[in-house]
Structure formats: structure tokens, C-alpha cells
Write a structure and sequence with these properties.
The protein is mostly helical. The protein has helices spanning 24-31, 34-54, 59-86, 95-112, 121-153, 159-186, 199-227, 238-250, 253-274, 276-283, 288-313, 318-341, 353-389, 394-422, 439-449, 451-463, 471-494. The two termini are 24 Å apart.
Length: 495
């Protein structure tokens, strides 16, 4: 099937400013694949709380296990991305790896939430490390070619952001569904998140949901994926070519800027996310049903932020939109946690809901800006790479983004776990419903939860300033791409 078959009617020779648009149905089917990544991201915060507060494993060991699994997975990402860039098959170069990754990821999610009980702490540590690594690794086998496929589906400055928007909205809806299932089914009632027996069934239910979404995506887009261009570079051993390819992408200043900025912000994201449940339960003292409403507020913020972003991108540069999103997130990480740490604002239970919901709603809006604009910037940088170096490296570019996010988030979780042990957080607190922590410990948790990650976010924003791919510059890149591809086709015919 030709690439043009899946696009709306339009001129046969589109200009960079007026590229053909993909059909809505194709975008929707593609968006189902987001269930693999968003499904995991939604359940991931449960892992840190489950293994520390419920199973009683040392915070340092949990943090170390999560860090090891994410760093190893991050190291594997460039290999997976390179494989994705170089696969040749009748289904295209992306789909075969997606078909492999989805079921294996689902299997390991179920195992992650069903560890053997009454075992030595070191055995529990090994189980967490291995299953967490397997989940992230197999998720990457699906996600990296999935994200790269999204970058290949369109080359327009705005249309590419539209694809990311569909994917992001799907992720939000998946997050809403999982949140409802988690807090209204598995963790509803007395004990909530502190009820140990609810976690295994929850894990297997999430595994089925992720697998179903991945399967719908693969079945829905296989004809389109098969019609995309195959790799034009000579096929070589991945292990032999990976090193030079990684060196090649780091020669692009745009990639270096995005990579280093992501590396810093995700340390903060990892710390904040790891301590969410600890903050809600032990400081703000909210029930699971209330946590569900707070999560909905965050997702509602995303729903507001995501459709606003394409409108902003029509008037603003992508870098500006990302900096705006970072500023919004930074404000929410500083204001409410600082007021609570200082003892100025101390509501608990239902009284804390408006404050928490309002804060995370605003954070969700800012995150929506980031979720659309940042991956779109990475795709633009990959286009620039093709013009500069003559090879398409979308898989490796998104692998680099994955490496930054995973390794840095793993480091953030490690820091959170070590900090819990440093603060002497009581290991049995998770099994004691209604436990009251000392005021000083609650204040320290607030600082770790918000202001400290905010400092890292500020550094990340400053590091993003050298990024220079503007709308005008990208139009020039798109024109150069078309000319180069036309030359390649002409050379191929003449040979």
C-alpha cells in the first residue's frame, strides 16, 4: 500500500507549509498503542509505595532496584532504537518489534505485582530488580519503534504535533480508566493502598489492558506501516554500527540540548513521582477515593493542556511552549509543598482535596504543553539529522530521549529511597492505617516532594535555551529533505 493511500485528499506535491494530513481513523488506531507506555506510567507510582510502605523493603533497596532496572533499560534503548531503524521486513521496520514487545511487557507487569511472600529482603530486592527491568525493557521494544513510527507518519511542523496530540489524549484516557479501576475496584474501602492482597490482581488486570491496546494498534496500522520507506543505509551488524550511530547523533547540537535538558528534569520527575503516595497518605492524610479525585484533576489538566498546545504552536515556537510548560510545573512543585512544609497551610483529609486537586490540575496543564511540544522537537531534530548526516535515526533519537528519561528517573527514585532511609521513615507505617508521623518528618517529605525537584526543573529550562530549530528553520529542513529523497530515488532508478 502506498503512503499516500492513507492521507486525505490534497495536492499531489505538498509544500512544507501545507503537507497532506493523515486520516483521523489512522491516528486513532495508532493512538491505541499509547496504552503500553501510559499503562505502565500510570501503575508505576504504585510500585515504590507497594514495596516500601506495604512490603516493608528498605527505601534504599527499592530505590536501588528501580535505579538499576531503569539504567540498564536506558543503556539498552540505543540498541533497541538502532534495531528499529534498521529492521527490514514486509511489515516495515517498526511493526515487528512492536508485535514482540507488547505481550512480553504485559506478562512481566503481572509478575512485578505478584512477588513471592515471606522471603528474605534480598530475594525480594532481586525479584523487584529483575521484573522491573523486564517490564521496562519489553516496553521499550514496543515503545521506541512506536514513537519513531509516529515521527515517520507525517513530516509537517504542525501535523506532526497533531499525531503526538492524539497519542497523548489516548494516554490521558487510559490513565483515567486505570485510575478508576485502581481506586474504585482494587483499592477501594478500608486500608486502600495499604492492603497487600489487592496488588497481584491489580497487576494482572493492568497487563491485560496494556496488551489489548498494543494489539489494536498493531492490527490497525500494519498496512500503513508496511508502506513506509525501508532503511536506505546499507544493512550492517547492529552491534558494529551502534557505536558510530550514537556518536553521530551526539554530533547534532539540537539532540545534545534536548538530551541533557531531559536528563536533568527527569531526575526531579522521578523524585516527585516516587513520593506521591507517601505525601498523600502520610502528610495530607487523604483516602484512596480522594487520591482518585486528585489523579482525575491532574488528568483533566492534561486534557486542557494538550488541545491548547497545538493552538500555541501555531503562534509560538516549540521551545517557548516547553519553557512555558516547565514554568507552570515548577510553580506547582514549589508553592503548595513549601506552604505545607512551613506549617502555613495544613489541611488534611477532605479539606486538603481542593488544594491538592487545584495544584495538580495546573501541573497537568503544564505537563500537557511538554507532552506535545517536547517529542515534536525531538522529531524535528531527527529531521535535521537526516539533512546533515544522510541517515534517518528517529529510533535512535527517541532511544536517546528514553535513555535520559529512564536513567534520570531511576536516579530520582534512588534518591527518594535513600532520603526515606536517611529520614528514618518507619518501615511498618504502610501497614498501620491512620499512622501519624512527626511534624518534622512530614515537613522534610514535602521538601523532597516539591521544592527539590523544582530546582532541577529550573536547571533543565536553562539548559534548553540553546535549542535553535524554529518554524522557519524547520521549513528549510523539510525542503532539503524532499530534495535529498528525490535525488536518492533518481539515483536508484538510474543505477
Amino acid at each position: 500500500m502506498a503512503l499516500a493511500d492513507e492521507r486525505s485528499d490534497g495536492p499531489s506535491a505538498a509544500t512544507p507549509s501545507d503537507p497532506p494530513r493523515l486520516k483521523v481513523g489512522l491516528k486513532l488506531l495508532y493512538a491505541f498503542g499509547q496504552s503500553v507506555e501510559s499503562g505502565y506510567l500510570t501503575v508505576a507510582p504504585f510500585i515504590f509505595f507497594y514495596y516500601t510502605a506495604v512490603l516493608g523493603l528498605s527505601g534504599s533497596l527499592v530505590g536501588l532496584a528501580l535505579a538499576i532496572s531503569m539504567v540498564v533499560d536506558a543503556v539498552l534503548d540505543p540498541l533497541i532504537g538502532s534495531l528499529s531503524d534498521n529492521v527490514r521486513s514486509k511489515f516495515g521496520r517498526r511493526l515487528p518489534m512492536m508485535i514482540l514487545g507488547a505481550p512480553l511487557m504485559a506478562l512481566t507487569v503481572g509478575l512485578l505485582f505478584g512477588p513471592p511472600l515471606a522471603v528474605a529482603p534480598f530475594v525480594l530486592f532481586l525479584w523487584l530488580t529483575i521484573t522491573k527491568l523486564a517490564v521496562r525493557g519489553f516496553a521499550s521494544v514496543f515503545n521506541l519503534p512506536y514513537f519513531a513510527l509516529g515521527a515517520e507518519m507525517a513530516d509537517g511542523y504542525v501535523e506532526r504535533s497533531s499525531i503526538v496530540a492524539y497519542r497523548t489524549i489516548a494516554g490521558i484516557l487510559i490513565g483515567v480508566l486505570i485510575t478508576i479501576i485502581a481506586y474504585s475496584v482494587f483499592f477501594a474501602g478500608e486500608g486502600g493502598l495499604q492492603r497487600q492482597g489487592s496488588y497481584p490482581a491489580f497487576g494482572w488486570a493492568m497487563a491485560v489492558l496494556c496488551l489489548a491496546g498494543g494489539a489494536i494498534c498493531c492490527l490497525g496500522i500494519w498496512r500503513f506501516a508496511a508502506g513506509l520507506p525501508q532503511p536506505r543505509t546499507p544493512q550492517t551488524s547492529v552491534l558494529r554500527s551502534l557505536g558510530p550511530e550514537v556518536i553521530e547523533i551526539f554530533r547534532n547540537a539540537s539532540f545534545r540540548t534536548l538530551f541533557l535538558s531531559a536528563l536533568v528534569i527527569y531526575v526531579g520527575v522521578g523524585m516527585n513521582a516516587a513520593l506521591n503516595s507517601h505525601a498523600y497518605i502520610f502528610v495530607w492524610k487523604v483516602l484512596p477515593e480522594t487520591i482518585q479525585l486528585i489523579t482525575f484533576a491532574y488528568l483533566f489538566g492534561l486534557i486542557i493542556g494538550v488541545p491548547i498546545t497545538p493552538m500555541l504552536l501555531k503562534r509560538m515556537e516549540k521551545r517557548t511552549v516547553v519553557l512555558l510548560g516547565l514554568a507552570v510545573v515548577i510553580a506547582t512543585w514549589i508553592v503548595l509543598p513549601s506552604l505545607r512544609a512551613a506549617g502555613i497551610l495544613t489541611p488534611t483529609g477532605v479539606a486538603a482535596l481542593p488544594w491538592l486537586a487545584g495544584s495538580v490540575f495546573i501541573a497537568g496543564v503544564g505537563t500537557g504543553f511538554l507532552a506535545i511540544a517536547y517529542p515534536s522537537m525531538m522529531a524535528d531534530a531527527a529531521d535535521e539529522h537526516e539533512v546533515k548526516f544522510g541517515a534517518r535515526r528517529e529510533g535512535l533519537y527517541f532511544a536517546g530521549l528514553g535513555f535520559a528519561s529512564k536513567s534520570a528517573a531511576g536516579l530520582g527514585q534512588l534518591l527518594a529511597g535513600v532520603a526515606l532511609d536517611f529520614l528514618r521513615f518507619p518501615k511498618e507505617a504502610g501497614r498501620q492505617v491512620g499512622v501519624i508521623l512527626p511534624d518534622s518528618l512530614q515537613s522534610h517529605l514535602m521538601i523532597l516532594w516539591g521544592p527539590l525537584p523544582a530546582i532541577l526543573a529550573i536547571i533543565s529550562a536553562l539548559m534548553l535555551l540553546p535549542y535553535v530549530i524554529t518554524r522557519t528553520r524547520h521549513e528549510g529542513i523539510a525542503t532539503a529533505q524532499k530534495l535529498k529523497r528525490a535525488e536518492d530515488v533518481s539515483a536508484g532508478r538510474s543505477s
